[in-house]
Amino acid sequence: MAAILAQGETVATLIGDVWDIITANPVLSTFVVCGLITAAIGVFGAIKGTSHF
User: pTM for this structure?
Assistant: First the structure.
């Protein structure tokens, strides 16, 4: 069990390192924002589509 928790902590640390690299670079930050906007539009469209009977 301790090994699983240690690996989870390692993964969290690596994700944090990658996030720091992405946010330090303006071009990569732009790509992340564009991806998030696209995902938000898709979710909004799905919600809107299901609300019509």
Answer: 0.61
Residues 22, 29: contact at Cβ < 8 Å? yes
- For position 35, what pLDDT does the model report? 95
Six-digit token string for 29: 């930050």
Distance, in Å, from the CA atom of 13 to the CA atom of 30, rounded to the nearest integer, reads 23
User: Across the chain, where does the E strand assignment appear?
Assistant: none
At how many degrees (to 10) do helices 26-51 and 2-24 cross?
110
**9 token code pair:** 């902590």
Identity of the amino acid at 15: I
